[in-house]
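Record passed on here:
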Amino acid sequence: MSKTLSLYFAMSSIILMIVTAVFISENGWYAALFAVLTCVNVGIGFIVKARKRRASSNKS
């Protein structure tokens, strides 16, 4: 995975975690929603990383 793509997934995950933390004290439903979105974002990051790694190993 390129460094730019890694940085994107890292920063977007951090932002989603911060938003989740803010909404914990404000609204439980929004906190749950952003917690799920954070998990999905992290999962997509792992999926992209695995696919990029598999694609680069198939080329070799």
